[in-house]
Design brief:
- The protein is built from three helices and two strands; from the N terminus they run H-E-E-H-H.
- The chain has about 80 residues and is an alpha+beta fold.
- A two-stranded antiparallel ribbon has the order 1-2.
- About 20% of the residues are buried.
């Protein structure tokens, strides 16, 4: 699947929400496609498969980068509340 196809499938299945902070995007194009497990992970994770992809708003995607997994980002966001 292409990036655009994966983005569309995830929007259709889960709605226009950031998986990091639950922000509801007014336009699905605001959400960026990212890896649940970093693509450069040394543990063998980080594949480009749809099962390792997430929708993130720009602030969450910038915070997460390639340094952490999606669950780690969620924990950090939860602590900020």
């Amino acid at each position: 699947m292409t990036r655009q196809e994966i983005h569309q499938v995830l929007i259709e299945e889960f709605g226009p929400y950031c998986w990091g902070c639950n922000f509801k995007a007014p336009d699905p194009r605001y959400l960026e496609l990212d890896h649940i497990n970093p693509k450069d992970g040394k543990d063998g994770y980080g594949q480009h498969h749809i099962n390792n992809r997430a929708l993130l708003c720009k602030p969450c995607n910038s915070e997460k980068g390639n340094r952490m997994t999606l669950p780690q980002l969620r924990r950090i966001n939860k602590q900020k509340r």
